[in-house]
Write a structure and sequence with these properties.
alpha+beta; three-stranded antiparallel sheet
Length: 194
Amino acid sequence: MIQQWAAAVKPEQRTVNTSAGTIIYRVEPLIINQKWMGVFVVAHTAVGESQEVQETIQVVIQVMLVVLALSVALSRLAAGKVLAPLQSLKETARSVSESDLTQRIPVQGSGDIAELAITFNDMMERLQLAFASQRDFINDAGHELRAPITIIRGHLELMSSDPEEQQETRLLLLDELARMSRFVDDLIVLAQAE
């Protein structure tokens, strides 16, 4: 290859694969005052550089994997802390039942999640009051219906065979039944009302 370069009369640039590896060279003939004085050759072997590049790539890949693993771990940790109030909201919502409306979410800090917890707690307070009101209403309705039924049963059990007393009992029973009917009509109106 050196002999070929020494005989060069025109510029040349090439890449050649040899047993020693890849060689990149440029040959420039030296011509001074129209007289050939020799050649100027710059040659470079890329064998060591490609190995260095491969080693560098391996190190970069290893560092990137470590950084990726650390970033995933830190992201999960941060996401866990950020989503902890939502997890608490989910668990509280799941634990709420018709028989236990006392569950509340502890409010920590400020921001959208704290506002959501406050809104949820307010909703639970309203639901608890509504269910208590409904329970009281049902108890009152049961008592209001039980009283006429008891009166009717008592009079029917004690009714004698005297026609005058039977007529009195009949009027009393009709009055109690009318009272129950009005109460049932009122309940239907309440059920249909918003």
